[in-house]
Amino acid sequence: MKSQNRRFRIVGGSGAGPGSAGRRFGFGRSGVPARRKRPSGSGGMAGGWIFLVLLGIGAYIAARLPAPERPVTGELSGPASASDGDSLRLDGRRIRIEGIDAPEIGQMCRRGETAWDCGAQARRRLVALVAGTTTVCRLHGRDRYGRELGVCAAGGADLGREMVLSGHAVSYGLYRDEEETARTGRLGLWGGDFVRPQEWRRSNGGAEEAPHRAGDWLEIIIQWLQEHSSAIMARIGGD
């Protein structure tokens, strides 16, 4: 049998004395450090893109599903007044129109170089829709601020649908197709530049407000992607 030339070295503290138990034998080529594998950035980039693609597929599927119907907790009918672009007073009660989010009073938007008070304009649009007619609201409980949530109609027209379709409000759990129609036609808010009301409230110390459908995780995903898309892309590119 041919003998193999093997080297061995003593591994341990150099200061250990004779018979030290802290030493051990290591076999192999002495003096050659083990190679370390360098992490590859392509794996992190591919993983990031796969995550975004799967998230997009899930959002698309959820968008095709009908919104779950919430149990009706009451109904109000009568003349209504608009507090802002997505809130009413009806029969002495505050009602938040369900499924939409309109610019806040004092929120400014832009068309080219011109700034305009889109919050006030949204309120005027809702005032016109409820003026001189009976408003009917089907209530679906309350939001975290005690306002009653309701799907409301005036003169037979769904107020939430009309506000989003005309571009004076955005989808906030309902009316996604109407928002896409307004966006494509560059109507109302979509005719210029604007910050979504939720983000405007957050930036200006306003109240946080979740989408109005508890099971509408799609809306939460969309908002999260909008708020973190730049950071996600920067991280993927950096990897």
Helicity, in percent? Answer: 25-40%
Structural class: alpha+beta
Q: How many angstroms separate the termini?
A: 52 Å
- What is the helix/strand order? EEHEEEEEEEHEEEHEHHH
Q: Determine the oligomeric state from the structure.
A: single chain
User: Mean of the pLDDT scores?
Assistant: 77
Radius of gyration: 31 Å
Task: Tally the beta strands.
Answer: 13
> Which regions are unreliable across 5 or more consecutive residues at pLDDT < 50?
10-21, 23-30
| Count of DSSP H/I helices | 6
Strand fraction equals: 15-25%
Give a short account of the largest sheet.
Answer: 7 strands, mixed
- The coarse overall form would be globular
